[in-house]
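Hypothesis: this fold can be encoded by more than one sequence.
Test: take the structure tokens below, design a sequence, compare later.
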């Protein structure tokens, strides 16, 4: 993505000495197979071949892939990488219950979000944004599909990290459970935190618990968090100067305008937070109407710029992809320097910004689940494919009994 936004990749690909280089393409294709992890599975296939024969080894390998074993272990490696990285940066350790035994219950969306938001969902969405930017600004001059073949493993990683908890969740695509999960998640997001409120009851309590490692870290850990967050500013810098409105200008005024948009967004969050605390309960409807008018105003400005041909659709999408990572970077830096922000009274806007991002991430992840839940055969296929026959029959019987119980009531 850095090479694409900087124009370096275009110069490399259009260089006559590299064009039509079959040897380079074959080398990269071989590398992508290794990157996908196929060689890691080779020892297992050889072991089964020695014990039960090649036919059994091949059939077991195919069945495992149909049951999405690669998705499961890719997700598992994301868990290890996240917590190892956090402990390297900040130290400390914490016991996590493994819940040993056969898990046969449906985990709600809010529970999966609490468990895997920071370790998988945030990183998966960041990689997804990088891939979209790469596809948007790199495909116009690509003459080969080799880059898609190479980046396929990253797309696979993103899909695994975002949707594996729901694919392997019992009745994860049943429509009624999806509706109940959405209501439960909205309640969890809206509840206020405080002393004695557990993380599974309120988003604010969970969010405060997720930052527990920053409370006991040293100045080195805080500085490292800030340095790692600077990568989002690089995304913003590259995207802003590739927008149609910039007209290939490298002036600082263009970059300053992008920061002006962020300042206006943060200022709106501060105003909304103050109004929410001071507005009487009877005026909450008017407060929500005010927020809706503000949102429509921003949409109207964007539409006007599009009509005047100052922005294209790709520019509007790129602008959103530039502003979102920048706000997340400010949020990460604010969390790292929480004591200083509390002194100046800026911790409230940071919390409101975090809540807005949590809503957006939850909607982006929940939308595909809702679409798949519309089709009954998806839930049926999931139950028969990923669970044994006894458990599948148990799910079917429980659904029938619950349906009869509702009719009796």
């Amino acid at each position: 993505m850095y090479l694409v936004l900087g124009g370096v990749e275009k110069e490399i690909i259009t260089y006559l000495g590299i064009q039509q280089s079959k040897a380079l393409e074959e080398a990269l294709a071989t590398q992508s197979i290794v990157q996908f992890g196929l060689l890691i599975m080779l020892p297992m296939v050889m072991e089964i071949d020695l014990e039960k024969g090649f036919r059994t080894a091949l059939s077991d390998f195919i069945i495992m892939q149909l049951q999405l074993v690669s998705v499961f272990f890719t997700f598992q490696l994301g868990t290890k990488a996240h917590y190892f990285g956090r402990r390297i940066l900040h130290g400390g350790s914490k016991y996590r219950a493994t819940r040993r035994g056969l898990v046969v219950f449906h985990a709600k969306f809010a529970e999966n979000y609490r468990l895997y938001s920071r370790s998988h969902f945030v990183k998966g969405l960041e990689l997804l944004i990088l891939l979209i930017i790469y596809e948007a600004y790199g495909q116009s001059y690509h003459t080969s599909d080799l880059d898609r073949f190479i980046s396929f493993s990253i797309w696979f990683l993103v899909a695994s990290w975002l949707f594996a908890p729901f694919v392997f969740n019992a009745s994860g695509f049943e429509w009624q459970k999806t509706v109940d999960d959405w209501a439960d998640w909205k309640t969890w997001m809206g509840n206020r935190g405080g002393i004695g409120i557990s993380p599974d009851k309120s988003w604010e309590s969970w969010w405060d618990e997720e930052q527990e490692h920053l409370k006991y870290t040293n100045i080195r850990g805080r500085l490292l968090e800030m340095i790692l967050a600077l990568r989002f500013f690089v995304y913003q810098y590259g995207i802003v100067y590739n927008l149609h409105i910039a007209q290939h200008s490298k002036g600082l005024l263009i970059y300053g305008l992008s920061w002006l948009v962020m300042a206006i967004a943060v200022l709106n969050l501060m105003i909304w937070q103050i109004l929410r605390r001071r507005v009487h309960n009877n005026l909450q409807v008017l407060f929500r109407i005010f927020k809706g008018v503000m949102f429509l105003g921003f949409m109207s400005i964007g539409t006007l710029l599009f009509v005047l041909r100052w922005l294209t659709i790709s520019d509007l999408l790129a602008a959103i992809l530039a502003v979102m990572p920048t706000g997340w970077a400010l949020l990460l830096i604010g969390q790292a320097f929480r004591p200083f922000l509390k002194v100046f009274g800026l911790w409230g806007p940071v919390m409101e910004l975090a809540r807005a991002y949590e809503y957006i991430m939850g909607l982006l992840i929940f939308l595909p689940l809702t679409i798949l839940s519309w089709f009954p055969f998806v839930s049926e296929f999931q139950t028969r494919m990923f669970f044994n026959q006894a458990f599948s029959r148990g799910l079917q019987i429980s659904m029938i009994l619950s349906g009869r119980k509702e009719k009796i009531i």
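The two ends are 58 Å apart (CA to CA). Residues 109-138 form the longest helix (30 residues).
Hypothesis status: open.
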